[in-house]
Amino acid sequence: xxxxxTTFNNRLLPYLLxxxxxxxxxxxxIWPAAQAVKSSFEREDPFGxxxxxxxxxxxxxxxxxxxxxxxxWRTAVFAVSVTVLAMVLGLAxxxxxxxxxxxxxxxxxxxxxxxxxxxxxxxxxxxxxxxxSTGLLPYFLERFGIRWDHDLNGTHAMILIIIAAAWKQxxxxxxxFLAGLQSVPQSLIEAAAIDGSGPVKRFFTxxxxxxxxxxxxxFIINVNYTMFDTFPIVDATTGGGPAQATxxxxxxxxxxxxVGLNLGSSSAQSVLLMxxxxxLTFVQFRFVERRVQY
Amino acid sequence: xxxxYWGPAPIxxxxxxxxxxxxxxxxxxxxxxxxxxxxxxxxWWHAMGGELGKKLEEIAQKFNDSQADYKVVxxxxxxxxxxxxxxxxxxxxxxxxAIVQVFEVGTGTMMAxxxxxxxxxxxxxxxxxxxxxxTFLTPVTGYYSDTQGNILSLPFNSSTPIMYYNKxxxxxxxxxxxxxxxxxxxxxxxxxKIVSSGAAKCGFTSAWITWVQTENLSALHDKPFGTxxxxxxxxxxxxxxxxxxQVKHWANLKKWQDEGLxxxxxxxxxxxxxxxxxxxxxxxxxxxxxxRAGVINNAKTFTPGFAPLPYYDDEIKEPKxxxxxxxxxxxxxxxxxxxxxxxxxxxxxxxxxxxxxxxHQFTGYLPITNAAYDLGQKQGYYQKNPGSDIAIKQITRGTxxxxxxxxxxxxxxxxxxxxxxxxxxxxxxxxxAKQALDSAAQRGNALLxxxxxxxxx
Lengths: 294, 457
Description:
The complex is a heterodimer of chains A (294) and B (457). Chain A has 294 residues and is mainly α. Chain A has one domain (54-263, 277-291): MetI-like (MetI-like fold), CATH 1.10.3720. Chain A is 71% helix and 2% strand. Chain A has helices at 13-39, 57-64, 66-98, 104-112, 119-129, 136-143, 154-182, 186-194, 199-210, 212-229, 231-237, 249-259, 263-288; strands spanning 42-44, 51-53. A two-stranded antiparallel ribbon of chain A has the order 1-2. The longest helix of chain A has 33 residues, at 66-98. Chain B is an alpha/beta fold and 457 residues long. Chain B has a five-stranded mixed beta sheet, with helices on both faces. A five-stranded mixed beta sheet of chain B has the order 7-6-8-5-9. In chain B, helix 2 (50-66) packs antiparallel against helix 15, helix 15 (353-363) crosses helix 16 (370-378) and helix 19 packs antiparallel against helix 20 (433-454). The A-B interface holds A 43-50, 52, 132-134, 151-154, 239, 241-244, 255-256, 258-262 and B 81, 84-85, 88, 91-92, 109, 112-113, 115-116, 264, 266-268, 272, 275-276, 279, 281, 411, 413-414, 417, 420-422, 424-425, 427-428, 430, 447, 450, 453-455, 457.
């Protein structure tokens, strides 16, 4: 691959061009993150009259708190389920649409639609569908002998947020997979077809390996999505309940900091969450990327 | 101007009068502009949405129309926790409103923030407004006073839980529609009849498991919710709501749920409880007296009845008063003298019996002053609206004890979340009543110690 190089005559210009983006990053990302790190070492009353440096107290308490460790485990279950579900379905839909000749555009539009829905609206939508007294799905599930009750049953509540969160992300994955599939060289597929391999075999031996950069990219995006962006879905459907069964890490940050006004502990949780995501991204780039063919 | 120049026209008398009129008009406009500029703005952050919000804005508007010096500007800031958090964040950024509406569970937080709060009794004294705590209902002032008996925030919307029942379902089940269950034993018996006769799918449900079935349950039976007079005595208090009575009641609720007599309405406010009651799925519900307007609006196909909360007659012969919920208005520090003058005037206006009675009768919140209650009686409101005085009778009955005066704890929003979680664990068969309440008290105590530490350094 050859890279294009642009040379600037003016030494100041490149910095000026970068300045707006840098300013936004500094003001809206670096600065708040630094503040969070600072207050994670402090104990403060909500109004900010007295601030005391407490060292690693908040971190020690969190790591010894069974509720926090449970929340960590639940977040892992949630993230893996949503990522797998959204990616497998996204890929399946992309492969299906890719084989269509005439109606591909129509289906693409329909499949991308959910992505335009705001997360909180998606949450409310699924909350309606699964509502225990007025919802459509519990009514059908009862015919199969399943008494749906996400208000009390933690597993049901977890399934609900996984479905709601994955539903929104399928569209995104679908678009990227479809673009990836369409850039797979037609000559390779035709050659394989002439050699006598069927569509399923062609998909698994040619398309899928060639899609690996897309898959890798989507994997990181999806994990980050479930870690950070699913707050509105949890808030609109289960509110973290029942008995914390759907309190993910990011929801706990909100509950302790915003509702409970415990800023120190909430900041410590944000910092831990940030470290987890950094670690995951590092692991993904370091080890998963090696097996990815570009 | 591109037009031709016609030369100065001779000035006529009419023109002069016209000019005079014009300048007068301009002067008047300027005057009114300065007077509206001079009107000191008093911002009021509140958490009343929907019908309640409209009524609140109407009250502010009427105050603004009644005088020209101050203009109260109500701003809706979302739910109660959102409003409190917004006010705290604004205070830290020095952008706080003059008045903020804080719900009763935030009282502990506000009281501990001495530097942020301008106590109402002090404000009224400083501004020379008459303010006599005796004119307010005792349980209301008791809840919002410090240990010396000074009122720190102005009671605005206070409510207490009562029982609502469906008279038509009672009839169908062969029960007397005019007789509501008095004790928990009767609630059980009536519910059995209702369910077995097929009159409704469930006997009873309840909003606010925390507030109604735990805090008020303790008060009604004169049992402590926490040490140090339920937290009124200071931040060193500890929770004791895992006593035998509470364990017995929670175990009963679980048993009644298993028998199909009781249905859970969800955490926090238990929104499903109202839905199930309106849909005639459950014959009885227990909810805030402020839910009265909603019940009347939604009970289109049945006649609702109103009654006091039930109690265990083998635990207490004469149940104590119930305790309040709702919110009060807190004044925040850091504003100028003129603003506080306006706040004091507005608070005097709010405490007027006509204003109070109007708000109480429209919303179902309690009349906060004795005068407002008297006015309602004079107007014949309680006779015309049977059941509308259940709440006030229930909250003023007997002499309040240390256990029925109210509860005051730091971090109480989170404590309520914990109580909800443990109740869900009980209903989901993960814990028995004793384990659930023990664990709630233990987790709650950890939060109290955290609050104590944050507010003592």
